[in-house]
Amino acid sequence: MPLPETEFKESPSESQTETEPGRHDLRINVLGTSFSITAGEDPAYLDEVLAQYQVAVANTQGISGMKDPLTVAILTGFLLCDEINKLKMQVEKEQAQTELQRKAETQELNRITQNIIARIDQIFNG
């Protein structure tokens, strides 16, 4: 899956401004580093993602006790990737279970249909 087109820049800006139609600036200030990105996403969505990352960083700091910004950022990224993979595996498992359930339902419908056809044949043939 391709990543969304996002520009990163060091120039300061306010929280969010529309830079060109459909593009929005987001000011990120995390772990003592501040920069702006320009993305083609809804500003509310960008704010939500940033808030989630800030919570993840705070959780990482709280759990690990680490203070070094680079270490915290790397560990946070690793933990988020772990969470993504676990969610992906859960979705795949649920999809497999759904497919098995569909197959079982299809087999049952086929069995019922065959029984109905057999009964109809009996009625017409004797």
Q: Can you characterise this structure?
A:
By secondary structure, the chain is α+β, with helices and mostly antiparallel strands. It has one domain (6-125). It has helices at residues 43-64, 69-125; strands at residues 6-9, 18-20, 23-30, 33-39. The protein has a four-stranded antiparallel sheet, covered by helices on one side. Helix 1 (43-64) packs across helix 2. It starts with 5 loop residues before the first strand and ends with a helix. Residues 11-18 have low confidence and may be disordered.
What is the approximate shape? elongated
Number of domains: 1
Tell me the total number of β-strands: 4
Order of helices and strands: EEEEHH
Radius of gyration: 26 Å
What is the share of helical residues? 55-70%
- Straight-line N-to-C gap: 61 Å
Task: Give the strand content.
Answer: 15-25%
Tally the helices: 2
Low-confidence stretches: 11-18
Q: Which structural class do the helices and strands define?
A: alpha+beta
Q: For the report, how would you describe the main beta sheet?
A: 4 strands, antiparallel
**What is the residue-mean pLDDT, rounded to a whole number?**
87
Strand order of the largest sheet: 1-4-3-2
Task: Write a short abstract of this structure.
With 126 residues, the chain is an alpha+beta fold. The protein is 63% helix and 17% strand. It contains two helices and four strands; from the N terminus they run E-E-E-E-H-H.
